[in-house]
Write a structure and sequence with these properties.
The protein is an alpha/beta fold. The protein has twelve helices and 14 strands. Strands 1-2-3-7-8-9-11-10 form an eight-stranded mixed beta sheet. The longest helix is centred in the middle third of the chain and has 18 residues. The protein starts with 11 loop residues before the first helix and ends with a strand.
Length: 384
């Protein structure tokens, strides 16, 4: 496959935002605030574990699985992304939380990660923030498990590695700029129709590129290492699969740190921490709270409710938000809305469903099911 000439650039608006956010304070730190009278956002932990965001509107977005178009649509529905294709943050002091599983099943994984990174830089300049938690597909890829990688995902890794070389391995510039560069690359990119020789060579190149980027200590794995597996923002806890009492007892910040060290290639153990990333009841794999309750007996439902209640009490939270398991009925809640499930399978590689997001504002939570719903109350729950 011929090399695709990719320019190394950042949009003018993004460059300006980055300059505003170039310095990073040590943990705990305050994110810059330039508007309004809200107190600064304070982040504790590295990766972020406990976040104080007084008075902020919080928006949660579920699994995206490499579908950039659906991701953008969801972010526009949430009121944080401009609709003019300029990738501009318009959320003001909003806090955006993405629940993981950006990787696999789609061809624009790095582009989505790049977009969220750019939006985070812009959000900080406006008193807001973007946080991400890692899901099971992020940890699987860092382990080298590529079973669910779309062929377009391999192609993107190979192209991004070329882009990184053009940028003289300036990671920040190459990574943040990729969300804009990749659009032109996709337009010019032609996948060989011959399913044998040429395509196989392209795939091999993509596998090698993905391994370089995502192995522990690789540049993209290092980027993922900045994301938590459990994040608490105000009185809400966010994780991909589900948080259980023994996770809290083990230590949320401890789990986040151990997974981060492993992704950075700094861990003494080649395997990721089991309690966070492996096993049916690990943080990124648990489906206890997100499964269909209609096929369970009353005693089983009561058991789950008790476990959830004990977990929330242990972590000092009012409610939990999870992804991981596609919800056929869309964003929904259980147990008096103490658990919210926000994975709607929006990616074309999953259910190709209509994007939906969760909004939390002034102690109330609601599902946003269309752009119009940003201004109408579909489902409100008062936690105060």
């Amino acid at each position: 496959m011929a090399s695709v000439p990719l320019g190394c650039f950042l949009p003018l608006q993004t460059r300006r935002r980055i300059l505003c956010c170039a310095s990073t304070a040590s943990t705990p730190h305050s994110l810059s605030q330039t508007r309004g009278t809200l107190k600064p956002i304070v982040v504790n932990g590295d990766p972020p574990t406990f976040v104080s965001a007084p008075g902020r509107r919080i928006v949660a977005v579920g699994d995206l699985h490499g579908d950039l178009d659906k991701a953008k649509y969801a972010l526009q529905m949430a009121g944080v992304l401009s609709s003019d294709d300029q990738n501009l943050w318009v959320g003001g002091q909003t806090v955006l939380v993405q629940l993981g599983d950006i990787l696999d099943r789609g061809g624009d994984e790095i582009a989505i990660l790049s977009l969220l990174k750019s939006l985070d830089m812009q959000a900080k300049a406006n008193g807001g923030a973007v946080f991400q938690v890692n899901g099971n597909h992020e940890t699987m890829n860092v382990e080298g498990d590529f079973r669910y990688v779309d062929s377009g995902g391999f192609d993107e890794c190979a192209a991004f590695l070329e882009h990184l070389e053009i940028c003289e391995h300036n990671w920040e510039e190459a990574f943040v700029g990729w969300s804009s560069v990749s659009k032109r690359w996709r337009k010019d990119h032609k996948v060989p129709k011959n399913p044998w020789g040429p395509w196989n060579l392209v795939k091999q190149k993509g596998v090698i590129a993905r391994s370089i980027l995502l192995r522990p200590g690789g540049p993209l794995a290092f980027e993922l290492a900045h994301h938590a597996v459990v994040l608490k923002v105000n009185d809400w806890v966010f994780c991909h699969g589900g948080l259980l009492p023994h996770h809290v007892e083990y230590g949320i910040e401890r789990m986040n740190t151990e997974v981060s060290y492993w992704m950075k290639g700094l861990s003494m153990d080649d395997h990721p921490p089991f309690i966070a990333t492996r096993g049916y009841d690990s943080v990124v794999w648990s489906r206890l709270y997100s499964r269909d309750m209609s096929d369970l007996e009353d005693y089983q439902i009561n058991q789950i409710q008790y476990i959830l209640r004990d977990t929330l009490q242990a972590v000092g939270a009012k409610a939990m938000v999870v992804g991981h398991t596609p919800q056929i009925t869309g964003v929904n809640c259980e147990f008096n809305c103490s658990i919210w499930r926000v994975d709607v399978g929006m990616s074309s590689g999953v259910l190709d469903s209509r994007p939906e997001v969760l909004e939390i504002r002034e102690g109330e939570a609601r599902a946003i099911r269309s752009r119009r719903d940003r201004y109408s109350e579909l489902q409100l729950v008062d936690y105060t």
